[in-house]
Structures are given as C-alpha cells and as structure tokens.
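Ticket #4471: structure export looks truncated?
Reporter: QA, pipeline team
Priority: medium

Steps to reproduce: submit the single chain below to the structure queue and open the exported record.
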Amino acid sequence: MKKLKNHTLKEYLDVLAKKEPIPGGGSVAALAAALAAGLMSMVARYSLGKTPIKRTERKIETVLDRTENLRERLLELVDLDAMAYMKVVRSRGQSPALKKKAKSEARSVPREVSRISYQLLELAPVLASHGNKYLISDVEVAVELLFAAYKSAMINVNVNQ
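Actual output as written to the record:
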C-alpha cells in the first residue's frame, strides 16, 4: 500500500472518504498539526532577514528549525497512526492480551501528536511577536489547527483505552 504521506491531497481525501477503517481521525489529527507546522515554517521564512536584531533573528531561525523537524515527524505519524489502528482492527476476536497490546500502540501515536501540537503551540508567540506582520493571520490559523489537532489526538487516545 502506498504511504498516506505520499498521496496527493485528492488521493488522501478520496481514501479518507472510503468505507475503510483507515485513515481516520488520528491520521487527520497528525495531518492537521503538520499543516500548522507548515504554516509556521512559512511565516518564519518570510520573517528571516526582516529584523536588525540578531537575537530576534536567532529566535526565528530556531522556530524554523523546530517547525520543520516537527512537520516531518507529524507527516510520519499520519501513516503510523493508520498502521497502529489497523492492528486494533485486526485484534478483534483475538485474545485480550493482543487487544490490549494493539490498543496501547494505538494510543501512543495520538499521544505523540498531542505532545508535538503542544510544542508547536509554544513556538507560536515568537512568530506572533516577531514574525512578518502581514502573516499574523497565518500564525492564528496555525494555532487553531494545533488546538484542533491536540484535541482530536486526545480523543483518539481516550477511545483506545
């Protein structure tokens, strides 16, 4: 099967809309957070070189480095969540021990998505304060996506208890 992260947007949405167990909410939560990270990276790039203050420039560079690393990880989590949930589906009718193990794995991915979403939210004030003033709405959209990703990921943690 082709990795979800390698689908076009249309292909991903077409697969998402099918009557199939994956991808689902956990994968979408990871993608939403990855989209937010992408927006934050864009704002950071547009902001570099716009301030004469070296310390501020370094802060923005740090944000860019962090958002890019986290965006890549979130993109991996889009697929990892789908794989983990598929184990839950396959464990139905199996021993309680196998079900428990599958659910534990299925909780770990959205837990990571929620942690990364929080880490990205902590970076947003730097962009809101020091980023390109014409892109503040992009920072706001990223923050809203991160709130949604965090909450959606936690829903998936709880459902796999």
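Status: closed, not a bug. The export was complete when the record was re-opened. Leaving a note from the reviewer for reference: The chain has five helices and no strands.
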